[in-house]
Amino acid sequence: MAIRKISQMTEADHVLVTAAVADAERHTSGEIVTIVTDLSDHYEDIAMAWASAVAFIALATYATFPDFYIGLINGLSGGWGHEYTTGEYVALLLTAVALKWIGTWFILKWMPLRLALTPKSTKLARVRNRAISLFKVGTEAKTVGRTGVLLYLSMKEHRAEIVTDEAIASKVAPEVWGDAMVALLDQVKAGNPGTGVAAAVRQMGVVLAEHFPKGSENPNEIPDRLIEI
Q1: Is the pTM of this model over 0.90?
Q2: H or E segment at 150?
Q3: pLDDT tens profile 115-161
């Protein structure tokens, strides 16, 4: 699935987040990966579902009040009445329903509206699935001690996720990351996503340092840079 790269993150944001990751990892054997994306899913199935719902309602309305709509058609044609055959009426009905479906589909190509009509639970699930997918590709089992952790921010859904490797998940409950998520989302809402990611990384570093302190031999196994996709 192709996702358009965002423009909210500046070069200064990249520098800020990279420095925050490097600083956090100085005190822990954990490896922090940060990924920011514009959108986790295009929700085309949601647009299709709404278009189909509108078309079905239109079909039911046309079938319930045929005389009213036939009168409208005759009025548009200059008031000349026409006795429609069953085939002609079915053709008119299907054409009108198809136009409703296509019209709704095109309206919902405007992503803000599509997102507004997408259930919150669906957005949460899609963002989570995207985060897990990216974690499996770029973070999971990429460290000797299985101590990788992904901070994932999806801008348009206003959602973030923290996904951890096996060793971290066994010691750190998901709710422990609450301070990091609050620090992130507060700054994102204020229009400072880079500052938010850096703040979250610092909070994550505190947690990781407590449970996975820096060892005598601990190479930097994953690059510290902020990733935009």
Answers
A1: no
A2: strand 148-154
A3: 999 999 999 999 999 999 999 987 777 777 788 899 999 999 999 99
Residues 6+ apart with CB under 8 A from 19: 198
Residue 85, helix vs strand vs coil: coil
Q: Does domain 11-42+118-228 have CATH number 3.10.310.50?
A: yes
Judged on CB neighbours under 10 Å (0-12, 13-18, 19+), 146 is middle
Helix, strand, or coil (residue 78): coil
Domain boundary assignment for the chain: 11-42+118-228, 44-115
Q: With contact defined as beta carbons under 8 Å apart, do 126 and 54 qualify?
A: no
Torsion-angle region of 53 (φ positive above 0: left; ψ -120 to 50: alpha; else: beta): alpha
How far the first Cα of the chain sits from its last, in Å, is 11
Phi and psi of 154, rounded to 5°? -110, 110
